[in-house]
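hey
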């Protein structure tokens, strides 16, 4: 078992900073009504509201994540770093194990208690978002799940004093898809500097909107 890194709980005003980019590769942990753990890989898990913060994903109907989310109303989003040993473990978690098999054990990943919810965090992931289900929507053969974030934690060395992620340590990733042989690409280049401008007039914009500072740089 690997040593568990030091995690710190994030202040609510910094939660939105930590989920970057807006859509990334994650492992989502859930538990069934008896507390049995499941972990599944998701290539498109997306922040859909900033304040309050909500995260959404879709899963196939009849899957363990589907059953657990509907049974307990809780899930934990664990952001996966772009490191080959970890990406290999993600693919193990994506295999169609039976319902009573714990994917974390199969992949050699370390569960650790969440701050406020029942599904565990994954120690090897750098940041974690604990969510309560706000609503679900069935469509085709899938379930859309939207959860309100209740707690956020991150490795202590992966966040700045201003509450922004250290990109080269968090190393978020994107999933290319089955047609690309289950390959991944990095998503952790440092953001560009805010050098843009628009020479506009107040009457062009909605009343009360601070359009001049809409995308103010944090550098």
């Amino acid at each position: 078992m690997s040593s568990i890194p030091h995690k710190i709980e994030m202040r609510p005003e910094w939660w939105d900073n930590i989920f970057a980019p807006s859509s990334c590769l994650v492992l989502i942990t859930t538990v069934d009504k008896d507390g049995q753990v499941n972990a599944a890989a998701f290539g498109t898990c997306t922040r859909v509201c900033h304040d309050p913060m909500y995260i959404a994903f879709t899963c196939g109907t009849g899957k363990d994540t589907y059953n657990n989310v509907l049974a307990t109303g809780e899930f934990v989003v664990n952001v996966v770093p772009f490191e080959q040993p970890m990406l290999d473990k993600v693919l193990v978690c994506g295999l169609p194990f039976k319902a009573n098999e714990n994917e974390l054990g199969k992949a050699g990943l370390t569960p650790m208690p969440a701050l406020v919810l029942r599904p565990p965090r994954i120690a090897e992931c750098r940041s974690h978002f604990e969510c309560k289900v706000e609503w679900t929507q069935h469509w085709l053969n899938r379930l859309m799940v939207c959860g309100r974030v209740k707690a956020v934690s991150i490795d202590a060395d992966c966040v700045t004093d201003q509450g922004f992620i250290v990109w080269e340590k968090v190393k978020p990733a994107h999933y290319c898809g089955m047609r690309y042989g289950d390959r991944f690409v990095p998503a952790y280049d440092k953001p560009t500097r805010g050098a843009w401008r628009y020479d506009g007039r107040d009457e062009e914009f909605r009343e009360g909107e601070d359009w001049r500072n809409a995308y103010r740089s944090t550098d």
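The first strand starts at residue 7 and ends at 9. The longest helix spans residues 84-93.
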